[in-house]
Amino acid sequence: QVQLVESGGGLVQPGGSLRLSCAASVSIFSFYTMGWYRQAPGKQRELVATITSGGSANYADSVRGRFTISRDNAKNTVYLQMNSLKPEDTAVYSCNAERIISPRRSYWGQGTQVTVSS
Known about the structure:
Blueprint: E1 4-7, E2 10-12, E3 18-24, E4 32-39, E5 46-51, E6 57-59, E7 67-72, E8 77-82, E9 91-99, E10 106-108, E11 112-116
Parallel strand pairs: 2-11
Antiparallel strand pairs: 1-3, 3-8, 4-5, 4-9, 5-6, 7-8, 9-10, 9-11
């Protein structure tokens, strides 16, 4: 059973920063693409950022230049550094691990709340 545990969410003022962490219970060194997704109230879940096992990252247009995704495979952890936060960034942020070899599966954490408000 693969478990993902997010941490680092909280309440922050506009313009502030947070770093989210996602710790995996198994090695993510070779066989997983990792990602962060978010879901605001009344909205569909959307992709925020992904990073491959080789370190190639992509971002949603809304966060590009402000957020940085990274991974530490030795620690089985993926991070999301969020800078210049805006109220529209408020959402539940969830970590995703997508297995890229058979059996292909996606794993999800429970999510962590990020609230950007003054």
